[in-house]
Amino acid sequence: MSVVPVLADVPLNDDTVSPGVLGLAVFVALAVATVFLLRSMNKQLKKIQAPREADLKQQEWERAEAEKAATAAIPATTGDAAKIEKAGTPSADDDES
Questions:
Q1: Rounded distance, CA 67 to CA 73, Å?
Q2: Global pTM?
Q3: Which alpha helices (H) appear in 1-97, and where do they start and end?
């Protein structure tokens, strides 16, 4: 006697076919894994420190003030000493015509 004829003798209908204990165990395992993954994700998201908009505006303002201070510190000189010539290019004052 084999097992196959015994299983074939059982009539299949909506009352006798069900997911069974294995289906329940897989569903519970997936649910538990999902809960643990969600908890871990929430912990990781709480660690993220995104800058606030007010902080970003403050940094931008400080950067602009630093640039203003840097440009104000350079003395504005006039005359021939202030001219910066590129190497090999004659200036407008050196007309030899």
A1: 10
A2: 0.41
A3: 3-8, 20-47, 53-73
Q: How far is CA 35 from each of CA 7, 12, 21, 25, 26, rounded to the nearest angstrom?
A: 38, 36, 21, 15, 14
Rg (CA), the chain: 40
Q: What is the pLDDT along the chain (97 residues), one digit of tens a residue?
A: 455 556 666 666 766 667 789 999 999 999 999 999 999 999 999 998 887 888 889 999 999 999 988 888 776 555 555 555 555 555 555 555 4
What does the alpha-carbon distance between residue 97 and residue 94 come to, in Å, rounded to a whole number?
9
Taking the C-alpha atoms of residue 95 and residue 87, their distance in angstroms, rounded to an integer, is 17
CA distance 61 to 54: 11
Query: How far is 22 from 50, CA to CA, in rounded Å?
Result: 45
